[in-house]
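Researcher: I'm preparing a figure for a lab meeting and need a structural model of a single chain. I don't have an experimental structure, so a prediction will have to do for now. The sequence is pasted below. Please return the structure as tokens so I can convert it later.
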Amino acid sequence: MEDDDSKKRRRELEVTILEKVGDVITSIKDAKHVDQVICALHLLAVRLFSPLQSQALSGSIAQPYRDQVLGAKVPSEKERSDWWWVFYQCAAFPTLARVLLYDVASNWLACFPFSARKHVYDAFFVNGLTVEVVQTVVPALQQDGNESFDIKIVRSNAERVLALCLLENDGVLQMAREFGGSGQYRDISSEQLNSTICRVAQLVTSIPDKAQLGTSNSLSSHFFFKQITIQLIAGAEERDMNLCNKESIFLKNGAGSIILFVGESFARICRRGSADVLLSEVITQILRHVRSILSRNADVVVSEVFETKAGSWFWLMLLEAIRDPYAVERLSEQLLRQLAAEHVTDIEAYWILWILFHRIYERQTSFRSLFLEKFLLWKVFPVCCLRWILQFAVLEFPPDAPLLEKGHNSRGLLDRAQHLAVVWSKREFVQSAPVEQQVYVTAALGFCLEKMSKEDLDATKDMMRSILQGVSCRLENPAHLVRRMASSIALVFSKIIDPKNPLYLDDSCSEEAIDWEFGLAALEKGTLNSSQCTDKDVDELKTCSGLFVEKDFNNTDNSWVGNSGKVRTKKLSEFKLVDPDEIIDPATLNNQLASGEEVDADDASENSEISSDSSLQPYDLSDDDTDLKRKFSQLVDVVGALRKSEDADGVERAVDVAEKLIRASPVELRYVAGDLVRALVQVRCSDSTIEGEEESAEEKRQKSLVALIVTSPFESLDTLNKLLYSPNVDTSQRIMILDVMTDAAQELADTKITKPKHQPRNLISTVSETQAWFMPSSLGPPGAGPWKEIHGTEAPLNWSYSYERELPLRAGQIKSGKTRRWSIRSENIRGHQTEWLQNKFPLYAAAFMLPAMQGFDKKRHGVDLLGRDFIVLGKLIYMLGVCMKCAAMHPEASALAPPLMDLLSSREICHHAEAYVRRSVLFAAACILVALQPSYVASSLVEGSPEISKGLEWVRTWALQVAESDTDRDCYTLAVTCLQLHAEMALQASRALEKYIVPLTDISHVFLETPDLKNAHPWIFSQTKRDSSAICSRHSSEVAGSLSLRPLSSSTFLALGRCQSLRVIGEYDNV
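Model: Understood. Here is the structure written out token by token.
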């Protein structure tokens, strides 16, 4: 009965309030003065809110209305409370709010005094139910402007009201309190309440997106989300601290109204891209909470303290309240990264993860998969985050746990380690995964292995085979970082099997603790530079005004193939061609290097003579055959010494002197070049040199081979190309052959020669001299100075004048008192000769490239370039690219480009599984684009040559495919460079097409037609009116002129290459 009376009184009060609101709205619409609007709103506000400052309000209005305001009846506190509840829960507030937001804001609010706006306008929003206010005001931010009021004013006022309610008056905190209270929403079902909470959270988080551009910073996403996050956390913690019986206020799904509101708001903030702003406040609060518990409970079980301590319940329930899987994943990922940026300890990080995630981790399989699969195999975090993930999700105990507790989850550790080992061992993972992901998975596997024992390893299935397979395939990789991963895993694995005998495959693993970051911790956000992850495997390709520069492409550390395969670390010295007529004693070349040492020895002997007698020691008169060793002066002797592998001393001396003898270019060189090349390739420097000097001997051998190719190209290349695919050489020797061929090509392309400096002369002598008639003639030897008058000291009046000038020195004449410089070409010092760079490589380009390109795809005994020996294949393709670059802008480049592009476009090459080979292919393609002459491309297209057009189309389409889909970062960079070079080449070739002129007589406009348009190359464009107007560029007003082609796009000018004939078929009017 009491409930019925209460509902009846509520309905009657609701009708009364609606009638009152109707009267106020009518008074506002009929008002002629702003004071009438203020009085009408005051009559309703005095019944809803606490006693208003009527005196302050009366001072801002006129006298007739002041008495009305001061005489308003003030209701009792109970009556005011009843009116307030009914007003905001029925249709009265939305009805009045619409009038306030649109009519009053557009017509009257600008005239309101400050006190009136505060007490009779803003009070309806600030002092009301914030949940209802948000649902009413936020839609006003998105009006379409079809109404009669000013939309801009309405939106500006709505933004002001929202900032006033939500930020200045902590409206979000008030909403959390409203949802946490039991009185307001006791009459509705839980489904309706949850729907209301979701709708309000969506409206609140959408405010920054709906705000106008240029609005105040208070509604910007960063500031707004930061402020409401602080209020949401404060509201949840406040409710948590005041609870006496937590279970009574939570629903069956484990989340109460406040937690649900906070979770929905957090999820939508993450969806709007502000997870970092949200977590910056969350981490600050939860880190303070965790540190306070850890500091006070050092000797108790911390997990029990977290579950019972007041203020922890909100953090334990937070992630369960976020029902959006994307938001959970985004929050988890950003949380790990920001904790790493905060440099928290491992213990603090573990308990933060535990308090936030352990409930959802135990109850939801999808969330467990997020940590165990995606965070360990797909994502890339800093190494400290990886330790935290393994500690929380795999080991499931804190870092400072006692030994007894650490053994409770060994099964989970073994399962996860075996799964990581299987993924890590796959060759496809090494070939396709980015280097940073390989480093991350390697570190995850290493951390798991460090926690395992010999018994744990025996309990796993096939884990040893996976580890050995992964180590083996990585040791074959040319990248030093990839091989270092294998060495680190092998070291940890060996410590499990036999802790007393660890296996060190790399010098960097000699330390007690392994650096699982591999020296890359300083890199920002876990990304790797190509120069650090592959030891400069890829050359930096740069284009600047058509210039193509490469820096040490494929300068790979080949220490994995033995001492004989080590790559030089110094560049070859540049050599000048000597005078071929000069007589040189080859035997004296051996003494040139030691000439300085002999001088030092003489000085030492003089010093020894003035020393005291007590320091003298008797000479050793025993037989010593050092001075009896024969010095090599003939290349035949060098070849013989190199073939005697048992004479290590002779081999060493032969390697030392070989380069100097070869550079002297003796007559016998062309006859012994082949044998000398074979001997230098097959000699084992590591067997003939002392330990520690193998690299120096390797460098001398490679310099000798380069000198041999430069001085005798055809004979040397014939032998090298035969040895390249010979079964009698190993992988390191093949790599060395390709390296010396690359260096020799670059040296031939940059050969320095000397030429006489051009002396300008008058070809036709003038009759009249430009100087005075009484001065001597200016004719004389080259280098003579100008005539100067001699002023004598004789009589003041002279019958003649004397002149003098400086003459150059004669041959063999020495000017006393001056230091003279000696050289083979002494005239060059006086400036009569100059140095020039001459490219001698194009003459030998075919000998370098064509034999090496034949048979690369054949599998022979010990040779499998398309399979096991992919490093040799990459080196071969790189060498061919360097050869193309060295022959750039020469006719040989145009002849060799089609077969090279045909080789590169084969599926086994361009789609090779190894990124190392694909990088080499992209480099070679870029070299082709640089080497081709644009005029040759234009002429071949006009003449209908299909090879160039097909090859260039393949380069473009394949580079686009690589740039879009290749996972290797360096392949992407090189592909983009190829596209840039292709565009530049297309532009230059289109300009070159301007020289192909089509004569015109009286034709005004023409267009081109190709007879075989349907069967043309894909680059051919369809002949339309637009294409014809693009091709025809000159107007018929140019009498007796000609039609020249404009600079066209690549797809347009390359189409011309398929045209069998360019013929005028009609005027523009007939198109």
